[in-house]
Amino acid sequence: MMFGLLKCLPVFLLTSFALAQDRNLRTVKTAFENANITEAADITFDPTLLLEVAFPQASGDEVPVHAGIQLPRNQTAIPPVFGIQRLGSLHVPSGTFVVAMVDLDPPTPQDPTEAQIRHFLGGNFELGRVNPDGVELLSNSTPAISNFLQPTPPAGSDPHRYVFLLFQQPPGFNRQTEVNATTPIENFNISQFAQDVGLGDPLGGTFILSSLALLFTASLALFSSCQDTSLATVQTAFENVSIPEDANLNFDPTVLFEVIFPQASGSPVNVTAGVQLARNETAIPPLFGIQGSTSSSNDTFVVAMVDLDAPTPQDPTSAQIRHFLGGNFVAGQPDAGGLSLLSNSTAALSEYQQPTPPAGSDPHRYVFLLFNQSAAFNDQTEVNATTSIANFNISQFALDVGLGDPLGGTFILVGPDPTS
Ligand SMILES: *[C@@H]1O[C@H](CO)[C@@H](O)[C@H](O)[C@H]1NC(C)=O
Ligand SMILES: *[C@@H]1O[C@H](CO)[C@@H](O)[C@H](O)[C@H]1NC(C)=O
Ligand SMILES: *[C@@H]1O[C@H](CO)[C@@H](O)[C@H](O)[C@H]1NC(C)=O
Ligand SMILES: *[C@@H]1O[C@H](CO)[C@@H](O)[C@H](O)[C@H]1NC(C)=O
Ligand SMILES: *[C@@H]1O[C@H](CO)[C@@H](O)[C@H](O)[C@H]1NC(C)=O
Ligand SMILES: *[C@@H]1O[C@H](CO)[C@@H](O)[C@H](O)[C@H]1NC(C)=O
Ligand SMILES: *[C@@H]1O[C@H](CO)[C@@H](O)[C@H](O)[C@H]1NC(C)=O
Ligand SMILES: *[C@@H]1O[C@H](CO)[C@@H](O)[C@H](O)[C@H]1NC(C)=O
Ligand SMILES: *[C@@H]1O[C@H](CO)[C@@H](O)[C@H](O)[C@H]1NC(C)=O
Ligand SMILES: *[C@@H]1O[C@H](CO)[C@@H](O)[C@H](O)[C@H]1NC(C)=O
Ligand SMILES: *[C@@H]1O[C@H](CO)[C@@H](O)[C@H](O)[C@H]1NC(C)=O
Ligand SMILES: *[C@@H]1O[C@H](CO)[C@@H](O)[C@H](O)[C@H]1NC(C)=O
Questions:
Q1: Atom 12 in ligand 5: which residue has the minimum CA distance?
Q2: What's the pTM?
Protein backbone atom coordinates (compact mmCIF):
# COMPACT_ATOMS: atom_id res chain seq x y z
CA MET A 1 0.00 0.00 0.00
CA MET A 2 1.15 3.51 -0.74
CA PHE A 3 1.29 4.36 2.90
CA GLY A 4 3.53 1.53 3.84
CA LEU A 5 6.03 2.77 1.29
CA LEU A 6 5.98 6.39 2.38
CA LYS A 7 5.74 5.74 6.06
CA CYS A 8 9.41 5.82 6.95
CA LEU A 9 10.62 8.35 4.42
CA PRO A 10 11.76 11.50 6.17
CA VAL A 11 10.30 14.55 4.48
CA PHE A 12 13.62 16.00 3.44
CA LEU A 13 14.24 13.21 0.97
CA LEU A 14 11.41 14.58 -1.11
CA THR A 15 12.25 18.22 -0.98
CA SER A 16 14.31 18.87 -4.07
CA PHE A 17 11.04 20.14 -5.55
CA ALA A 18 9.29 23.41 -4.84
CA LEU A 19 8.76 23.40 -1.12
CA ALA A 20 5.67 25.43 -0.69
CA GLN A 21 3.13 22.74 -1.50
CA ASP A 22 2.28 19.40 -0.01
CA ARG A 23 4.75 16.76 -1.18
CA ASN A 24 4.19 13.88 1.13
CA LEU A 25 0.96 12.02 1.88
CA ARG A 26 2.03 11.06 5.35
CA THR A 27 2.88 14.65 6.27
CA VAL A 28 -0.56 15.74 5.12
CA LYS A 29 -2.26 12.94 7.00
CA THR A 30 -0.33 13.75 10.17
CA ALA A 31 -1.11 17.46 9.82
CA PHE A 32 -4.82 16.59 9.59
CA GLU A 33 -4.55 14.41 12.68
CA ASN A 34 -2.54 16.95 14.66
CA ALA A 35 -5.14 19.61 13.90
CA ASN A 36 -7.88 17.18 14.94
CA ILE A 37 -9.56 17.54 11.57
CA THR A 38 -10.45 13.90 11.01
CA GLU A 39 -12.40 13.88 14.26
CA ALA A 40 -13.94 17.35 13.93
CA ALA A 41 -15.11 16.68 10.35
CA ASP A 42 -15.97 13.02 10.94
CA ILE A 43 -13.95 11.83 8.00
CA THR A 44 -11.68 8.91 7.35
CA PHE A 45 -8.60 10.56 5.92
CA ASP A 46 -6.16 8.18 4.28
CA PRO A 47 -5.04 10.27 1.33
CA THR A 48 -3.82 8.56 -1.82
CA LEU A 49 -3.44 11.79 -3.81
CA LEU A 50 -1.85 15.16 -3.09
CA LEU A 51 -4.49 17.85 -3.57
CA GLU A 52 -2.78 21.16 -4.29
CA VAL A 53 -4.52 24.46 -3.63
CA ALA A 54 -3.21 27.92 -4.51
CA PHE A 55 -4.72 31.37 -3.95
CA PRO A 56 -4.17 33.77 -6.87
CA GLN A 57 -3.32 37.33 -5.79
CA ALA A 58 -4.41 40.63 -7.32
CA SER A 59 -0.73 41.33 -7.92
CA GLY A 60 2.24 39.04 -7.66
CA ASP A 61 2.53 35.29 -7.47
CA GLU A 62 -0.24 33.02 -6.30
CA VAL A 63 0.06 31.76 -2.73
CA PRO A 64 0.47 27.99 -2.59
CA VAL A 65 -1.07 26.05 0.28
CA HIS A 66 0.50 23.30 2.31
CA ALA A 67 -1.39 21.54 5.06
CA GLY A 68 -1.67 23.81 8.07
CA ILE A 69 -0.27 26.99 6.52
CA GLN A 70 -1.52 30.21 8.09
CA LEU A 71 -2.82 32.70 5.57
CA PRO A 72 -3.97 36.20 6.42
CA ARG A 73 -7.53 36.71 5.26
CA ASN A 74 -6.55 39.22 2.59
CA GLN A 75 -4.56 36.56 0.73
CA THR A 76 -7.70 34.48 0.28
CA ALA A 77 -9.86 36.99 -1.58
CA ILE A 78 -9.64 35.40 -5.03
CA PRO A 79 -11.13 31.89 -5.48
CA PRO A 80 -8.39 29.28 -5.24
CA VAL A 81 -7.21 27.00 -8.01
CA PHE A 82 -6.95 23.26 -7.49
CA GLY A 83 -4.63 20.62 -8.83
CA ILE A 84 -3.22 17.17 -8.26
CA GLN A 85 0.48 16.58 -7.76
CA ARG A 86 1.84 13.84 -10.01
CA LEU A 87 4.47 12.36 -7.76
CA GLY A 88 6.27 9.09 -8.29
CA SER A 89 3.87 6.22 -8.58
CA LEU A 90 0.80 7.82 -7.00
CA HIS A 91 -2.16 6.44 -8.89
CA VAL A 92 -4.50 9.10 -10.22
CA PRO A 93 -7.87 7.63 -11.10
CA SER A 94 -9.61 8.65 -14.29
CA GLY A 95 -12.99 10.32 -14.32
CA THR A 96 -14.16 13.50 -12.67
CA PHE A 97 -13.74 14.92 -9.20
CA VAL A 98 -15.64 16.82 -6.53
CA VAL A 99 -13.90 19.50 -4.44
CA ALA A 100 -15.25 20.81 -1.13
CA MET A 101 -14.01 23.50 1.27
CA VAL A 102 -15.45 23.77 4.77
CA ASP A 103 -14.75 25.89 7.85
CA LEU A 104 -14.71 23.70 10.96
CA ASP A 105 -14.58 26.54 13.47
CA PRO A 106 -17.33 29.13 13.05
CA PRO A 107 -17.87 31.36 14.81
CA THR A 108 -14.92 30.37 17.03
CA PRO A 109 -12.88 27.20 17.50
CA GLN A 110 -13.91 27.22 21.16
CA ASP A 111 -17.62 27.18 20.32
CA PRO A 112 -18.20 26.17 16.70
CA THR A 113 -21.99 26.34 16.82
CA GLU A 114 -22.32 27.18 13.11
CA ALA A 115 -19.90 24.51 11.89
CA GLN A 116 -19.43 23.53 9.25
CA ILE A 117 -19.69 26.48 6.90
CA ARG A 118 -19.62 25.34 3.29
CA HIS A 119 -17.12 27.66 1.56
CA PHE A 120 -17.06 25.82 -1.73
CA LEU A 121 -18.62 22.75 -3.30
CA GLY A 122 -18.23 21.86 -6.95
CA GLY A 123 -18.15 18.86 -9.22
CA ASN A 124 -17.18 17.88 -12.76
CA PHE A 125 -13.54 18.79 -12.18
CA GLU A 126 -11.26 17.25 -14.77
CA LEU A 127 -7.49 17.04 -14.96
CA GLY A 128 -5.97 19.36 -17.52
CA ARG A 129 -2.68 21.04 -18.23
CA VAL A 130 0.39 20.57 -16.09
CA ASN A 131 1.86 23.70 -14.48
CA PRO A 132 5.64 24.28 -14.14
CA ASP A 133 5.69 22.64 -10.70
CA GLY A 134 4.34 19.37 -12.10
CA VAL A 135 0.85 19.97 -10.78
CA GLU A 136 -1.99 18.85 -13.03
CA LEU A 137 -4.62 21.54 -12.77
CA LEU A 138 -8.26 20.69 -12.15
CA SER A 139 -10.74 22.62 -14.22
CA ASN A 140 -14.51 22.57 -14.36
CA SER A 141 -16.98 23.45 -17.06
CA THR A 142 -20.16 23.55 -14.96
CA PRO A 143 -21.08 26.08 -12.27
CA ALA A 144 -20.16 25.17 -8.70
CA ILE A 145 -22.96 23.97 -6.41
CA SER A 146 -21.76 26.47 -3.77
CA ASN A 147 -19.57 29.26 -5.02
CA PHE A 148 -16.34 30.12 -3.22
CA LEU A 149 -16.83 32.25 -0.15
CA GLN A 150 -13.81 34.00 1.31
CA PRO A 151 -12.80 32.99 4.86
CA THR A 152 -14.18 35.59 7.26
CA PRO A 153 -13.47 34.63 10.85
CA PRO A 154 -14.94 37.19 13.26
CA ALA A 155 -12.61 39.77 14.83
CA GLY A 156 -10.93 38.35 17.90
CA SER A 157 -11.44 34.74 16.90
CA ASP A 158 -8.53 32.35 16.95
CA PRO A 159 -7.64 31.13 13.44
CA HIS A 160 -10.18 28.81 11.84
CA ARG A 161 -9.38 25.56 10.07
CA TYR A 162 -10.53 25.73 6.44
CA VAL A 163 -10.35 22.24 4.98
CA PHE A 164 -10.19 21.32 1.30
CA LEU A 165 -11.20 17.80 0.28
CA LEU A 166 -11.01 16.01 -3.04
CA PHE A 167 -13.42 13.18 -3.86
CA GLN A 168 -13.88 10.89 -6.82
CA GLN A 169 -17.18 11.90 -8.42
CA PRO A 170 -19.74 9.10 -8.46
CA PRO A 171 -22.25 8.56 -11.29
CA GLY A 172 -25.45 10.46 -10.62
CA PHE A 173 -23.70 13.21 -8.64
CA ASN A 174 -25.08 15.87 -10.96
CA ARG A 175 -28.60 14.81 -10.01
CA GLN A 176 -28.11 15.32 -6.23
CA THR A 177 -30.73 17.60 -4.66
CA GLU A 178 -29.32 17.99 -1.16
CA VAL A 179 -27.39 21.19 -1.86
CA ASN A 180 -28.08 24.00 -4.29
CA ALA A 181 -27.21 27.69 -4.54
CA THR A 182 -29.88 28.65 -1.99
CA THR A 183 -29.19 25.96 0.62
CA PRO A 184 -27.87 27.61 3.81
CA ILE A 185 -24.11 27.28 4.03
CA GLU A 186 -24.12 27.01 7.84
CA ASN A 187 -24.38 23.74 9.73
CA PHE A 188 -23.28 21.77 6.72
CA ASN A 189 -21.89 18.27 7.26
CA ILE A 190 -19.44 17.18 4.57
CA SER A 191 -19.28 13.68 5.99
CA GLN A 192 -23.06 13.34 5.81
CA PHE A 193 -23.16 14.85 2.34
CA ALA A 194 -20.44 12.45 1.13
CA GLN A 195 -22.41 9.55 2.55
CA ASP A 196 -25.71 10.71 1.03
CA VAL A 197 -24.37 11.20 -2.47
CA GLY A 198 -21.91 8.29 -2.44
CA LEU A 199 -18.62 10.20 -2.59
CA GLY A 200 -16.77 7.73 -0.40
CA ASP A 201 -13.76 8.82 1.63
CA PRO A 202 -11.70 11.76 0.38
CA LEU A 203 -8.83 10.91 -1.99
CA GLY A 204 -6.82 13.86 -0.77
CA GLY A 205 -7.01 17.14 1.05
CA THR A 206 -5.21 20.03 2.65
CA PHE A 207 -6.08 22.92 4.96
CA ILE A 208 -5.28 26.48 5.86
CA LEU A 209 -5.54 28.38 9.11
CA SER A 210 -6.86 31.85 8.67
CA SER A 211 -7.73 34.80 10.83
CA LEU A 212 -7.92 38.54 10.31
CA ALA A 213 -4.77 40.21 9.01
CA LEU A 214 -3.21 40.95 12.39
CA LEU A 215 -2.37 37.36 13.02
CA PHE A 216 -2.12 36.53 16.72
CA THR A 217 -1.77 40.07 18.01
CA ALA A 218 -5.03 39.55 19.88
CA SER A 219 -3.52 36.65 21.78
CA LEU A 220 -0.20 38.36 22.46
CA ALA A 221 -1.01 38.54 26.13
CA LEU A 222 -0.98 34.74 26.24
CA PHE A 223 2.76 34.62 25.95
CA SER A 224 3.84 37.89 27.43
CA SER A 225 6.33 36.64 29.98
CA CYS A 226 8.10 33.69 28.66
CA GLN A 227 10.89 31.43 27.82
CA ASP A 228 14.58 32.11 28.01
CA THR A 229 15.34 34.75 30.59
CA SER A 230 19.12 34.64 30.85
CA LEU A 231 21.72 34.97 28.10
CA ALA A 232 24.22 33.00 30.14
CA THR A 233 21.79 30.09 30.53
CA VAL A 234 21.15 30.01 26.81
CA GLN A 235 24.84 30.09 26.05
CA THR A 236 25.52 27.25 28.50
CA ALA A 237 22.67 25.21 27.06
CA PHE A 238 24.19 25.61 23.58
CA GLU A 239 27.62 24.62 24.84
CA ASN A 240 26.26 21.67 26.84
CA VAL A 241 25.15 19.99 23.66
CA SER A 242 28.06 21.16 21.46
CA ILE A 243 25.99 23.35 19.17
CA PRO A 244 28.65 26.05 18.60
CA GLU A 245 31.17 23.35 17.72
CA ASP A 246 28.85 21.28 15.51
CA ALA A 247 27.45 24.29 13.67
CA ASN A 248 30.78 26.16 13.46
CA LEU A 249 29.36 29.19 15.23
CA ASN A 250 30.66 31.74 17.70
CA PHE A 251 27.71 31.85 20.03
CA ASP A 252 27.93 34.75 22.44
CA PRO A 253 24.34 35.99 22.55
CA THR A 254 23.50 39.63 23.25
CA VAL A 255 19.76 39.32 22.58
CA LEU A 256 17.20 36.93 24.10
CA PHE A 257 15.60 35.38 21.04
CA GLU A 258 12.20 33.82 21.73
CA VAL A 259 10.42 31.17 19.68
CA ILE A 260 6.76 30.35 20.16
CA PHE A 261 4.88 27.47 18.58
CA PRO A 262 1.17 28.28 18.16
CA GLN A 263 -1.15 25.29 18.59
CA ALA A 264 -4.31 24.48 16.66
CA SER A 265 -6.13 24.62 19.97
CA GLY A 266 -4.96 25.80 23.36
CA SER A 267 -2.03 27.93 24.47
CA PRO A 268 1.09 28.32 22.40
CA VAL A 269 4.14 26.30 23.41
CA ASN A 270 7.06 28.37 24.69
CA VAL A 271 10.61 27.40 23.83
CA THR A 272 13.40 27.45 26.40
CA ALA A 273 16.81 26.46 25.11
CA GLY A 274 17.01 22.69 25.02
CA VAL A 275 13.34 21.94 25.69
CA GLN A 276 12.12 18.68 24.19
CA LEU A 277 8.90 19.07 22.20
CA ALA A 278 6.61 16.41 20.79
CA ARG A 279 6.70 16.57 17.03
CA ASN A 280 2.98 17.33 16.86
CA GLU A 281 3.58 20.52 18.86
CA THR A 282 5.67 21.86 16.00
CA ALA A 283 3.12 21.57 13.19
CA ILE A 284 2.31 25.27 12.90
CA PRO A 285 5.14 27.62 11.83
CA PRO A 286 6.61 29.32 14.91
CA LEU A 287 6.48 32.99 15.83
CA PHE A 288 9.66 34.83 16.72
CA GLY A 289 10.32 37.58 19.22
CA ILE A 290 12.96 39.50 21.14
CA GLN A 291 12.77 39.76 24.91
CA GLY A 292 13.76 42.85 26.79
CA SER A 293 14.61 46.34 25.63
CA THR A 294 17.17 46.41 22.89
CA SER A 295 19.15 49.10 21.18
CA SER A 296 18.43 47.19 18.01
CA SER A 297 14.76 48.10 17.88
CA ASN A 298 15.20 49.67 14.44
CA ASP A 299 17.26 46.85 13.05
CA THR A 300 16.30 44.26 10.49
CA PHE A 301 16.90 40.62 11.28
CA VAL A 302 17.47 37.30 9.58
CA VAL A 303 16.10 34.16 11.25
CA ALA A 304 17.37 30.65 10.53
CA MET A 305 16.33 27.23 11.81
CA VAL A 306 18.56 24.23 11.12
CA ASP A 307 18.58 20.55 12.08
CA LEU A 308 22.09 19.50 13.09
CA ASP A 309 21.29 15.79 13.36
CA ALA A 310 19.79 14.54 10.11
CA PRO A 311 19.12 11.74 9.53
CA THR A 312 20.47 10.72 12.98
CA PRO A 313 22.70 12.38 15.58
CA GLN A 314 25.10 9.41 15.26
CA ASP A 315 25.52 9.86 11.52
CA PRO A 316 24.37 13.32 10.44
CA THR A 317 25.20 12.90 6.78
CA SER A 318 22.40 15.17 5.54
CA ALA A 319 23.03 17.89 8.12
CA GLN A 320 22.32 20.62 8.27
CA ILE A 321 18.74 20.58 7.07
CA ARG A 322 17.49 24.12 6.56
CA HIS A 323 14.05 24.23 8.22
CA PHE A 324 13.54 27.95 7.86
CA LEU A 325 15.44 30.94 6.52
CA GLY A 326 13.90 34.36 6.20
CA GLY A 327 14.90 38.00 6.40
CA ASN A 328 13.49 41.52 6.75
CA PHE A 329 12.13 40.75 10.19
CA VAL A 330 11.54 43.85 12.31
CA ALA A 331 10.59 44.06 15.97
CA GLY A 332 7.17 45.36 16.95
CA GLN A 333 6.29 47.32 20.08
CA PRO A 334 7.16 45.41 23.26
CA ASP A 335 4.16 44.07 25.16
CA ALA A 336 3.70 44.42 28.91
CA GLY A 337 6.11 41.53 29.49
CA GLY A 338 8.80 43.10 27.29
CA LEU A 339 8.38 40.75 24.36
CA SER A 340 8.59 42.32 20.89
CA LEU A 341 7.27 40.04 18.20
CA LEU A 342 9.16 40.00 14.91
CA SER A 343 7.17 40.51 11.77
CA ASN A 344 8.14 40.34 8.13
CA SER A 345 6.70 41.53 4.89
CA THR A 346 8.74 39.57 2.38
CA ALA A 347 8.56 35.87 1.63
CA ALA A 348 10.98 33.60 3.42
CA LEU A 349 13.89 32.20 1.38
CA SER A 350 13.06 28.76 2.79
CA GLU A 351 9.61 28.24 4.21
CA TYR A 352 9.19 26.49 7.54
CA GLN A 353 9.46 22.71 7.47
CA GLN A 354 8.17 20.79 10.45
CA PRO A 355 10.79 18.66 12.27
CA THR A 356 10.49 15.09 10.98
CA PRO A 357 13.17 12.86 12.45
CA PRO A 358 12.97 9.38 10.92
CA ALA A 359 11.46 6.54 12.93
CA GLY A 360 13.98 5.09 15.37
CA SER A 361 16.18 8.18 15.51
CA ASP A 362 17.24 9.81 18.75
CA PRO A 363 15.91 13.34 19.15
CA HIS A 364 17.47 15.95 16.86
CA ARG A 365 18.74 19.41 17.80
CA TYR A 366 16.79 22.07 15.90
CA VAL A 367 18.60 25.37 16.32
CA PHE A 368 17.04 28.81 15.86
CA LEU A 369 19.39 31.71 15.20
CA LEU A 370 18.85 35.46 15.00
CA PHE A 371 21.25 37.54 12.90
CA ASN A 372 21.60 41.24 12.26
CA GLN A 373 20.65 41.51 8.59
CA SER A 374 23.43 42.66 6.30
CA ALA A 375 23.02 44.96 3.33
CA ALA A 376 23.99 42.04 1.09
CA PHE A 377 21.23 39.76 2.35
CA ASN A 378 18.47 40.84 0.01
CA ASP A 379 20.77 40.44 -2.99
CA GLN A 380 22.10 37.01 -2.06
CA THR A 381 21.68 34.24 -4.63
CA GLU A 382 22.98 31.31 -2.58
CA VAL A 383 19.58 30.14 -1.33
CA ASN A 384 16.18 30.27 -2.98
CA ALA A 385 12.99 28.26 -2.70
CA THR A 386 14.35 25.48 -4.89
CA THR A 387 17.79 25.14 -3.29
CA SER A 388 18.11 21.75 -1.59
CA ILE A 389 17.47 22.11 2.11
CA ALA A 390 19.85 19.24 2.90
CA ASN A 391 23.58 19.70 3.55
CA PHE A 392 23.16 23.36 4.31
CA ASN A 393 25.82 25.19 6.30
CA ILE A 394 24.49 28.18 8.25
CA SER A 395 27.98 29.23 9.26
CA GLN A 396 29.10 29.31 5.63
CA PHE A 397 25.92 31.12 4.61
CA ALA A 398 26.44 33.74 7.35
CA LEU A 399 30.01 34.20 6.18
CA ASP A 400 29.03 34.50 2.52
CA VAL A 401 26.24 36.98 3.15
CA GLY A 402 28.04 38.99 5.84
CA LEU A 403 25.64 38.25 8.67
CA GLY A 404 28.34 38.05 11.34
CA ASP A 405 27.89 35.97 14.47
CA PRO A 406 24.35 35.28 15.69
CA LEU A 407 22.89 37.92 18.03
CA GLY A 408 20.82 35.29 19.78
CA GLY A 409 19.39 31.83 19.52
CA THR A 410 17.60 28.97 21.13
CA PHE A 411 16.96 25.32 20.30
CA ILE A 412 14.53 22.47 20.72
CA LEU A 413 14.92 18.72 20.76
CA VAL A 414 12.38 16.74 18.74
CA GLY A 415 12.20 12.97 18.36
CA PRO A 416 10.20 10.96 15.85
CA ASP A 417 6.43 10.84 16.05
CA PRO A 418 5.44 8.05 18.44
CA THR A 419 3.22 6.75 15.64
CA SER A 420 5.98 6.63 12.99
C1 LIG B 1 0.45 14.90 20.38
O2 LIG B 1 0.36 13.49 20.41
C3 LIG B 1 0.16 12.98 21.73
C4 LIG B 1 0.13 11.47 21.64
O5 LIG B 1 1.17 11.02 20.87
C6 LIG B 1 -1.15 13.51 22.30
O7 LIG B 1 -1.28 13.07 23.63
C8 LIG B 1 -1.14 15.02 22.28
O9 LIG B 1 -2.39 15.53 22.67
C10 LIG B 1 -0.83 15.53 20.89
N11 LIG B 1 -0.68 16.98 20.94
C12 LIG B 1 -1.10 17.78 19.96
C13 LIG B 1 -0.80 19.23 20.13
O14 LIG B 1 -1.70 17.36 18.97
C1 LIG C 1 -11.31 16.95 18.41
O2 LIG C 1 -12.56 17.30 17.86
C3 LIG C 1 -13.67 16.72 18.54
C4 LIG C 1 -14.90 17.06 17.76
O5 LIG C 1 -14.92 18.42 17.43
C6 LIG C 1 -13.71 17.22 20.00
O7 LIG C 1 -14.77 16.60 20.67
C8 LIG C 1 -12.40 16.87 20.68
O9 LIG C 1 -12.36 17.44 21.95
C10 LIG C 1 -11.22 17.42 19.86
N11 LIG C 1 -9.99 16.93 20.45
C12 LIG C 1 -8.94 17.73 20.67
C13 LIG C 1 -7.72 17.07 21.25
O14 LIG C 1 -8.98 18.93 20.46
C1 LIG D 1 -2.83 42.21 3.78
O2 LIG D 1 -2.90 43.07 4.90
C3 LIG D 1 -1.62 43.41 5.42
C4 LIG D 1 -1.81 44.18 6.72
O5 LIG D 1 -3.00 44.88 6.75
C6 LIG D 1 -0.86 44.21 4.36
O7 LIG D 1 0.40 44.55 4.85
C8 LIG D 1 -0.71 43.35 3.11
O9 LIG D 1 -0.10 44.08 2.09
C10 LIG D 1 -2.07 42.88 2.63
N11 LIG D 1 -1.87 41.90 1.56
C12 LIG D 1 -2.66 41.85 0.49
C13 LIG D 1 -2.37 40.74 -0.46
O14 LIG D 1 -3.56 42.65 0.33
C1 LIG E 1 -32.60 24.04 -2.94
O2 LIG E 1 -32.45 23.22 -1.80
C3 LIG E 1 -33.37 23.51 -0.78
C4 LIG E 1 -32.98 22.65 0.40
O5 LIG E 1 -31.70 22.98 0.81
C6 LIG E 1 -34.79 23.26 -1.27
O7 LIG E 1 -35.70 23.62 -0.26
C8 LIG E 1 -35.05 24.08 -2.52
O9 LIG E 1 -36.28 23.73 -3.06
C10 LIG E 1 -33.98 23.83 -3.55
N11 LIG E 1 -34.14 24.74 -4.68
C12 LIG E 1 -34.07 24.35 -5.93
C13 LIG E 1 -34.22 25.39 -6.97
O14 LIG E 1 -33.88 23.18 -6.23
C1 LIG F 1 -22.08 14.49 10.32
O2 LIG F 1 -22.42 13.33 9.63
C3 LIG F 1 -21.81 12.15 10.13
C4 LIG F 1 -22.15 11.02 9.18
O5 LIG F 1 -23.54 10.86 9.12
C6 LIG F 1 -22.25 11.90 11.55
O7 LIG F 1 -21.57 10.77 12.06
C8 LIG F 1 -21.91 13.13 12.40
O9 LIG F 1 -22.42 12.98 13.70
C10 LIG F 1 -22.48 14.38 11.79
N11 LIG F 1 -21.96 15.53 12.52
C12 LIG F 1 -22.75 16.44 13.05
C13 LIG F 1 -22.06 17.55 13.78
O14 LIG F 1 -23.96 16.41 12.96
C1 LIG G 1 4.10 30.04 28.09
O2 LIG G 1 4.29 31.25 28.81
C3 LIG G 1 3.08 31.86 29.28
C4 LIG G 1 3.42 33.14 29.96
O5 LIG G 1 4.39 32.92 30.93
C6 LIG G 1 2.35 30.90 30.21
O7 LIG G 1 1.12 31.47 30.60
C8 LIG G 1 2.09 29.60 29.51
O9 LIG G 1 1.52 28.68 30.40
C10 LIG G 1 3.40 29.02 28.97
N11 LIG G 1 3.07 27.84 28.21
C12 LIG G 1 3.55 26.66 28.52
C13 LIG G 1 3.10 25.52 27.67
O14 LIG G 1 4.35 26.51 29.44
C1 LIG H 1 24.49 22.05 31.34
O2 LIG H 1 24.91 20.74 31.71
C3 LIG H 1 25.07 20.60 33.11
C4 LIG H 1 25.68 19.25 33.36
O5 LIG H 1 24.95 18.25 32.67
C6 LIG H 1 23.70 20.76 33.78
O7 LIG H 1 23.82 20.64 35.15
C8 LIG H 1 23.16 22.15 33.45
O9 LIG H 1 21.85 22.27 33.95
C10 LIG H 1 23.16 22.37 31.97
N11 LIG H 1 22.80 23.75 31.74
C12 LIG H 1 21.92 24.14 30.82
C13 LIG H 1 21.64 25.59 30.76
O14 LIG H 1 21.37 23.37 30.05
C1 LIG I 1 23.28 45.77 13.14
O2 LIG I 1 24.02 46.31 12.09
C3 LIG I 1 23.93 47.73 11.97
C4 LIG I 1 24.75 48.16 10.78
O5 LIG I 1 24.50 47.37 9.68
C6 LIG I 1 24.43 48.39 13.23
O7 LIG I 1 24.20 49.78 13.15
C8 LIG I 1 23.66 47.84 14.43
O9 LIG I 1 24.20 48.36 15.63
C10 LIG I 1 23.74 46.33 14.46
N11 LIG I 1 22.90 45.84 15.54
C12 LIG I 1 23.31 44.95 16.42
C13 LIG I 1 22.33 44.56 17.45
O14 LIG I 1 24.43 44.46 16.37
C1 LIG J 1 14.14 54.25 15.30
O2 LIG J 1 13.63 54.99 14.19
C3 LIG J 1 12.73 56.01 14.57
C4 LIG J 1 12.14 56.64 13.32
O5 LIG J 1 13.02 56.48 12.23
C6 LIG J 1 13.46 57.05 15.45
O7 LIG J 1 12.57 58.06 15.86
C8 LIG J 1 14.03 56.34 16.67
O9 LIG J 1 14.81 57.23 17.44
C10 LIG J 1 14.92 55.17 16.26
N11 LIG J 1 15.29 54.42 17.45
C12 LIG J 1 16.51 53.95 17.67
C13 LIG J 1 16.72 53.20 18.95
O14 LIG J 1 17.43 54.12 16.88
C1 LIG K 1 7.31 35.72 7.00
O2 LIG K 1 7.77 34.71 7.86
C3 LIG K 1 7.00 33.52 7.78
C4 LIG K 1 7.47 32.59 8.85
O5 LIG K 1 7.50 33.23 10.09
C6 LIG K 1 7.15 32.94 6.41
O7 LIG K 1 6.38 31.76 6.31
C8 LIG K 1 6.71 33.93 5.35
O9 LIG K 1 7.04 33.48 4.06
C10 LIG K 1 7.40 35.29 5.57
N11 LIG K 1 6.86 36.28 4.66
C12 LIG K 1 5.58 36.72 4.63
C13 LIG K 1 5.26 37.76 3.62
O14 LIG K 1 4.74 36.28 5.37
C1 LIG L 1 18.15 28.74 -7.02
O2 LIG L 1 19.40 28.34 -6.47
C3 LIG L 1 19.98 27.26 -7.18
C4 LIG L 1 21.23 26.89 -6.40
O5 LIG L 1 20.86 26.46 -5.12
C6 LIG L 1 20.30 27.68 -8.59
O7 LIG L 1 20.80 26.59 -9.30
C8 LIG L 1 19.02 28.16 -9.27
O9 LIG L 1 19.33 28.72 -10.52
C10 LIG L 1 18.35 29.26 -8.43
N11 LIG L 1 17.04 29.59 -8.99
C12 LIG L 1 16.64 30.84 -9.13
C13 LIG L 1 15.26 31.01 -9.70
O14 LIG L 1 17.34 31.80 -8.82
C1 LIG M 1 30.60 25.11 7.34
O2 LIG M 1 31.19 26.35 7.03
C3 LIG M 1 32.20 26.74 7.93
C4 LIG M 1 32.61 28.16 7.57
O5 LIG M 1 33.09 28.20 6.24
C6 LIG M 1 33.35 25.74 7.82
O7 LIG M 1 34.36 26.10 8.76
C8 LIG M 1 32.83 24.35 8.13
O9 LIG M 1 33.84 23.41 7.93
C10 LIG M 1 31.65 24.01 7.26
N11 LIG M 1 31.08 22.76 7.72
C12 LIG M 1 30.89 21.73 6.92
C13 LIG M 1 30.27 20.53 7.54
O14 LIG M 1 31.18 21.78 5.74
A1: 189
A2: 0.54
